[in-house]
Amino acid sequence: MSKNVGGTLFLVATPIGNLEDITYRAVKVLNSVDLIAAEDTRKTKILLDHYNINKPMTSYYSYNEKARSPQLIEKLLAGQSIALVSDAGTPGISDPAFHIVQQALENGILIIPIPGPTAFISGLIVSGLPTDRFVFEGFLPLKKGRKTKFESLKLESRTIILYESPHRIRKTLTEIQNYFGNRNVVVARELTKKFEEIVRGPIQLVLSELEKKEPRGEYVVIIEGASRKSNLDISSG
Ligand code: SAM
User: Fold this and answer.
1) Beta strands 110-114 and 8-12, pairing class
2) Which of 218, 221, 222, 223 to mutate to test the pocket of ligand 1 (most atoms within 8 A of CB)?
3) How far is the C-alpha of 79 from the C-alpha of 143, rounded, in Å?
4) Helices (H) and strands (E) in the chain, counts
5) Mapped to the 3 state alphabet, what secondary structure does 171-231 carry?
6) Could you tell me whether strands 235-236 and 8-12 are parallel, antiparallel, or unpaired per DSSP bridges?
7) Pocket probe mutation, ligand 1, options 14, 94, 173, 194, max atoms within 8 Å of Cβ
8) The pLDDT of residue 94 is above 70
9) How far is CA 20 from CA 26, 56, 143, 173, in A?
10) Rounded to an integer, what distance in angstroms lies between the CA atom of residue 181 and that of residue 204?
11) pLDDT digits (tens, 9 = 90+) for 67-77
12) pLDDT tens-place string over residues 45-56
């Protein structure tokens, strides 16, 4: 094993809504680093202000990560320590981090995870669907590859987890019903926030619940695996 060089890259999980969902260690690390690389510096500033953390920030998001990674690596090699945070939850989970992690590894830089919230884990554990085996698919492809993805997941026996936006939630659930039949699904909305809501039941009934008001906020969709019959009556709360 080669010896690490330079500073440390910390991948720090931050809240997915409720600002209190942050670990003591995350606050300590954010307070100790030389620089915070944030997906959206304005959003992260709200969190930093809440915890009286005053540190220089730079942006690191999907459109600049390839260009920004070498610049951050240079700082790390010069001995600086950097915390990477995303808008919400865990960096690298449907959020940028992959490029800098690859480059940090190539350069022998130490990477330390600071674990915390991830929306899909919170959704899964309250779903009532099996948690022993699951597959996280993140956002489905919007056009190319979407049909193939549904086809490939049709016989998946593990619980399937997706991320979805309010604009597409009804369309995606309708497609799931068309491909998978009237399976049990759970739609977890605005987790940890004021309007947190979890709707469980057969897709058809969940869809009719979603017709009652305009979808808003952020969604995790949890789908029962093929041939795993769970006991989920329609419930919302
Ligand atoms: N890195 C994040 C994580 O660890 O969960 C995910 C970031 S991804 C760009 C944003 C998506 O995550 C949203 O569109 C939604 O599907 C899901 N999400 C994030 N926060 C959520 C919340 N509070 N409730 C439900 N879903 C959420």
Assistant:
1) parallel
2) 218
3) 44
4) 8, 11
5) HHHHHHHHHHCCCEEEEEECCCCCCCEEEEEEHHHHHHHHCCCCCCCCEEEEECCCCCCCC
6) unpaired
7) 94
8) yes
9) 12, 22, 37, 32
10) 9
11) 999 999 999 99
12) 999 999 999 999
**Residue closest to 117 by CA, chosen among 46, 190, 218, 14:** 14
Please check the confidence at residue 2 and state whether its pLDDT lies above 70.
no
Give 55-66 pLDDT, tens digit per residue: 999 999 999 999
- In the chain, the domains with their CATH numbers are 8-114 (3.40.1010.10), 119-223 (3.30.950.10)
Task: Report pLDDT digits (tens) over 122-172.
Answer: 999 999 999 999 999 999 999 999 999 999 999 999 999 999 999 999 999
Instruction: Mark 182-197 as b/e (b = at least 16 C-beta within 10 Å).
Output: ebbbbbbbbbbeeebb
- The answer, yes or no, to whether any atom of ligand 1 lies below 6 A from the CB of 39, is no
Q: Whose CA is nearest to atom 13 of ligand 1?
A: 218
Sign of CA dihedral 9, 25, 88, 139: positive
pTM passes above 0.85: yes
Q: Quick one: how far is CA 225 from the chain centroid?
A: 21
